[in-house]
TrEMBL record:
Keywords on record: Aminotransferase, Antibiotic biosynthesis, Transferase
One GO term (biological process): antibiotic biosynthetic process
Record's protein name: Aminotransferase class V-fold PLP-dependent enzyme
Domain Aminotransferase class V: 76-285
Keyword set includes Ribonucleoprotein: no
SUPFAM superfamilies xref list: PLP-dependent transferases
Length: 337
């Protein structure tokens, strides 16, 4: 099918983007071409550097930040560990109750840190008395969206640092988050990239509060001059927190994030939430203005209706992205007949 200016081989009823996004044809073709080069012995390590540069710049554009403030990695939790491991003993972190554990586990794994969970809706008013806030912009389990304006105001008033996980938001929800200390995002969901690519925005004044827990040659000021011997010589910008790239993932991400340059995210948001809210309305439920919907439904009946979805927190989770249509809404409704 064709949607938002490109072609997708997405099957009817595919509503599992919160788990795995479907790549546009040019993204899949770029990865396939790279696999063929690898298969035939034509690959050279240095050829992947431009792809990393392109994906880094693409993520930066989505956030409206300087590419030099963006680190690349393989997963959200691995990048968040750079933040969590740097926190001194006695640090108090507040998080949303039931948030995805890739957000909370890195902090909980630091023995000197206390993590307190509160309901998402109460998070802004519970910031006072804490040093760090860590939360997903959009909740993985049910699509609830944190009140970013209220959170920013509360954090600034309390002098608390903020880490945002934008994994379930970036790619469909226009974001104004450069004010946060750190923003992480994985690419294989709404950004339609292969699994194995993620990015971390580090605000300039948060650099010294971030630790390169997986310091490696690629995090050097000049990676190809950092492959042997001491002393430690990390980059002076956010590249100091880079992980050696997952090559094929970066190839796909470079193409995918450049595709998003030509996409109006406000239109994507309207499309996605329009479908999600139409489903809720037909089920007699109030609209929620988010692309992810959690339903009290029988997973087997949903699957029998031709829907690809996930089960999260005991509920069927569906997500609507730019390649979904009204036909997908009707398929879900058939599971309730």
């Amino acid at each position: 099918m064709r949607a938002f200016g490109t072609d997708f081989a997405v099957p009817p009823g595919y509503l599992n983007t919160p788990s795995v996004g479907i790549p546009p044809a040019p993204v899949a073709e770029a990865v396939a071409e790279s696999v063929e080069r690898w298969r035939t012995g034509a690959t050279r390590p240095g050829e992947f550097d431009p792809y990393v540069t392109r994906s880094r710049a693409g993520f930066a554009r989505l956030l409206g930040v300087d590419p030099g403030r963006v680190a690349i990695g393989a997963s959200a939790s691995q990048l968040i560990a750079n933040v969590a491991a740097a926190l001194p003993a006695g640090t108090r972190v507040v998080a949303a109750e039931g948030d995805f554990t890739s957000v909370t586990f890195p902090f909980a794994a630091n023995p000197g840190v206390t993590v307190t969970e509160v309901p998402l809706e109460l998070l802004p008013e519970r910031v006072e008395g804490h040093d760090v806030v860590a939360v997903s912009v959009v909740q993985s389990a049910d699509g609830r969206i944190v009140d970013l304006a209220a959170l920013r105001g509360a954090a600034e008033a309390a002098g608390a640092a903020v880490l945002l996980d934008a994994t379930q938001a970036v790619g469909w929800l226009p974001l104004d988050v450069a004010w946060a200390d750190w923003v992480v995002g994985a690419g294989y969901k709404w950004l339609l990239s292969p699994r194995g690519c993620a990015w971390l925005y580090v605000r300039p004044d948060a650099h010294e509060r971030t630790r390169a827990v997986a310091a490696n040659w690629y995090a050097g000021e000049d990676p190809w001059a950092s492959v042997y011997g001491l002393p430690l010589r990390l980059a002076g910008d956010a590249r100091a927190f880079d992980l050696s790239p997952v090559w094929l993932a970066q190839v796909g991400a470079a193409a995918a994030l450049e595709y998003f340059d030509g996409v109006n995210l406000a239109e994507v948001r309207a499309h996605n939430t329009g479908l999600a809210d139409a489903l809720l309305e037909k089920l007699g439920l109030p609209p929620r203005g988010t692309a992810i919907v959690a339903l009290d439904a029988d997973p087997q009946r949903v699957a029998a209706a031709g829907i690809v979805s996930s089960v999260r927190g005991g509920r069927v989770r569906v997500g609507f992205h730019l390649y979904n249509t009204v036909d997908d809404v009707e398929r879900v409704l058939r599971a309730f007949e």
